[in-house]
Design a protein that fits this description.
The chain has 255 residues and is mostly helical. The chain has helices at 2-23, 25-32, 36-48, 56-70, 73-76, 84-98, 105-128, 132-145, 150-162, 166-181, 191-210, 214-223, 225-228, 240-254. Helix content is 76%, strand content 0%. Helix 3 packs antiparallel against helix 4 (56-70), helix 11 (191-210) runs antiparallel to helix 12 (214-223) and helix 11 (191-210) packs parallel to helix 14. The longest helix has 24 residues, at 105-128. It is elongated.
Length: 255
């Protein structure tokens, strides 16, 4: 009897979520049709209504729409979408708060991986060109959206160091290093998170070398060696990022 009640509860729970998904078919259709401006408008209205403001899906669709808008120069030039990049991350945070049980996690994770890859690439470009302010603006939103992201905290720390915000920088660096140390299964990280952590550890090690702190540079580059020491994939092809990591490791630790 108890088992039957549990199965019934699961069925009703799954059924209610299916109905919720069907309720937002209009948003799904606009996403498929790539009508991102209309999707953002309609999803935002759902987040304002009493009946739907606590449902996760409108926030997820709004984040997805704003993310795609942030990649479109013409749409991004419009006054209402000038902050679409930051708002995409903000609504991602709101979605995660609403979907505490991970009902839409599969779809969300696929989107988050795409969004992170794009924003991390932008951050790397800003960082490497010396535009620490713009890199920092993205990373401040990323750590709100993903508060245990090692790479984001570490690169944020370097940007804070470069902008002479030493106290904030030290706190961020300690947080990022702690999150690296707490990794239990590296393969549980999304691919963009793995790649950005590699970039972050190399960038931090190089920054420490630049500031004449070679002993700590060695410690930092050693932190990720277990994850990035494989330099060829299963087909024998070079893994470029890992090759660079191992080269820096050898230079600092074995050189």
């Amino acid at each position: 009897m108890k088992r039957l009640m549990i199965l019934l509860a699961v069925f009703l729970y799954a059924g209610s979520n299916l109905l919720k998904a069907q309720e937002y078919e209009d948003l799904a259709a606009l996403w498929v049709d790539q009508k991102y401006e209309k999707l953002a408008d309609k999803a935002f209205k759902y987040t304002e209504k009493d009946k739907s403001k606590n449902d996760p899906l409108p926030y997820l669709y709004l984040a997805k729409a704003l993310y795609r808008i942030s990649l479109d120069e013409k749409l991004r030039a419009k006054e209402e979408f000038k902050k679409s990049e930051a708002e995409a991350l903000s609504y991602s945070v709101k979605y995660k708060k609403k979907d505490k049980n991970g009902i839409y996690k599969v779809d969300a994770d696929k989107f988050f991986a795409e969004m992170k890859k794009t924003y991390f690439e932008q951050t790397e470009n800003y960082y490497e060109s010396g535009d620490f302010k713009k890199a920092l603006a993205i990373l401040k939103k990323v750590v709100q959206f993903d508060p245990e992201n090692p790479g984001a905290w570490i690169v944020k720390a370097i940007c804070e160091f470069e902008m002479k915000n030493k106290t904030e920088a030290v706190n961020n660096a300690n947080a990022g290093v702690d999150f690296v140390k707490k990794i239990q299964n590296f393969n549980d990280l999304l691919e963009p998170d793995q790649d950005f952590m590699r970039f972050a550890l190399m960038a931090y090690a190089n920054y420490l070398v630049k500031t004449k702190d070679v002993p700590n540079a060695k410690k930092i580059i050693s932190l990720g060696y277990q994850y990035y020491s494989k330099t060829k994939d299963d087909n024998g092809e070079a893994i470029k990022g890992n090759e660079d990591y191992v080269a820096l490791y050898n230079k600092l630790v074995n050189g």
